[in-house]
Amino acid sequence: MTIDLSGLSAKQLGALIKTAKKQQTIVAKRTPIAKVRTLLARLAKSHGYSIDEVVDGAAPAKRGRKPAAGKPGPKPGRKLGKVPPKYRNPANATETWTGRGKQPRWLAEQVSKGKKVEDFLIAAPAKSAAPAKKTAKKATKKVAKVPRKAGKSAAPKN
């Protein structure tokens, strides 16, 4: 690591040396990282966690039945289709928002300045005068019912 000190005055160099010495004493007093890791692992283990669960914030493993072999686990939430944007940043037309999820920063800043979210709505496309083309319903085939023979019961067999 190289730092260019040629542009600093004697006063600035003195302040830099003083700050560096303070930092050096702080670093020298610190416990080595390997020892800290060992202590944290022991503490986590004594409370029933692994160090990975504590550091990564992972949820502990769920207890209960495991899915049967060959069968998939729980299904993820439903996927929502892609939605066209409803709001556009007038300062940068490439920045848009669909109205789903958290407001983007550009919109949140404008709202905090007193503007309304509705001010950024994208105008709906103009509808044409021609009515929308409708498709005809497919004709259904009707099948005549065949009469049953007398003497047989209508109840299904088990």
Automatic annotation (TrEMBL):
Key word Cytoplasm present: yes
Gene3D superfamilies noted in UniProt: Histone-like protein H-NS, C-terminal domain
Keywords of the record: Cytoplasm, DNA-binding
Pfam families according to UniProt: Histone_HNS
Signal sequence region: none
Biased composition (Basic residues): 134-151
Keyword DNA-binding carried by entry: yes
Region (Disordered): 52-106, 126-158
Localization (cell): Cytoplasm, Nucleoid
Highest taxon of the lineage: Bacteria
DNA-binding protein H-NS-like C-terminal domain: residues covered: 77-122
Gene Ontology CC terms: cytosol; nucleoid; protein-DNA complex
Main location: cytoplasm
UniProt-recorded Gene Ontology molecular function terms: bent DNA binding; DNA-binding transcription repressor activity; minor groove of adenine-thymine-rich DNA binding; transcription cis-regulatory region binding
Family membership: Belongs to the histone-like protein H-NS family.
Name under which the protein is recorded: DNA-binding protein
Organism, scientific name: Xanthomonas graminis pv. arrhenatheri LMG 727
